[in-house]
Design brief:
KR_dom; Sc_DH/Rdtase_CS; NAD(P)-bd_dom_sf; seven-stranded parallel β-sheet; alpha/beta; 7 strands; oxidoreductase; globular; oxidoreductase activity; single chain; Rossmann fold; about 260 residues; 8 helices
Length: about 260
């Protein structure tokens, strides 16, 4: 799957799925635009990209900030003149429940990154993607398809909404030759737990892996390979679809966080 001279924006590229995708795209010849908030982590991933391909354009930005989102697109166009692929991967979870008294705060913070930023970046990138007949890959979660655990309500809502946005965007942009697809991972070994303090809920990768039928968590590279496939010409007939890679999590999920 060659992406030679393709310009690929990856948000949340400082670690996990986003980092793995950035490295794989670079290895396949893409001119990668890495977006993230942690400069130190971005720099380390950028070094990996450069070792396997071209040095990426690194943009330190917060996708919840409207000015930063605009800057992502502006800097990409100023540097490369086009956009071929947009990977909306950045995400977070702020835990709260209805009776906790602060669910609106958690909802606003979660939706700002997991949905609003995706809508905003898609709207700004779409005119450029129309020119290149490019495509978009949105990283969702099986959480959007499951009844939420008590404190996960904002996160599950955001991913369910993201799935609907993916389908709506795919339908609108199809006539312009732009494909839009989603990927819904189950548990993946990343630093998402550390970043979102999931450990406080009594969760670990061991407990997450044991909660699904295949008794394992995915590695970021597994999801990254699926991103590259959907972004490639091999998937030229696929749009508006949601690809689940969850080790059987939707079949049976036995997790019981405290």
């Amino acid at each position: 799957m060659s992406f030679a001279d393709k310009v690929v924006i990856v948000t949340g590229a400082s670690s996990g799925i986003g980092a793995a995708a950035a490295v794989l795209f670079a290895r396949e010849g893409a001119r990668v635009v890495m977006v993230g908030r942690n400069q130190s982590k971005l720099s380390k991933v950028a070094e990996q990209c450069a070792r396997g391909g071209q040095a990426p354009l690194v943009i330190r930005a917060d996708v919840a900030n409207d000015n930063d989102v605009k800057r992502i697109v502006d800097e990409t166009i100023n540097k490369f003149g086009k956009i071929d692929v947009l990977v909306n991967n950045a995400g977070l979870s702020v835990f709260s429940s209805i009776l906790s008294g602060d669910i609106l705060k958690a909802y606003d913070e979660t939706m700002a990154v997991n949905l609003r930023a995706v809508v905003h970046l898609t709207a700004l990138a779409a005119p450029h993607l129309v020119k290149t007949k490019g495509n978009i890959v949105n990283i969702s979660s099986i959480a959007g398809k499951m009844p939420p655990f008590e404190t996960f309500i904002p996160y599950n809502i955001s991913k369910a909404a993201l799935d609907h946005f993916t389908r709506g965007a795919a339908l609108e942009l199809a006539s312009s030759g732009v494909r839009v697809n989603g990927i819904s991972p189950g548990p993946v070994v990343t630093d998402f737990f550390d970043n979102n303090e999931v450990g406080k809920l009594g969760l670990s990768f061991d407990t997450m892996g044991a909660s699904v039928p295949l008794n394992r968590c995915s590695q970021p590279e597994e999801i990254a390979e699926l991103i590259l496939y959907l972004a490639s010409d091999k998937a030229k007939g696929i749009t508006g679809s949601d690809f689940v890679s969850d080790n059987g999590g939707l079949l049976q999920f036995k997790l019981q966080p405290k």
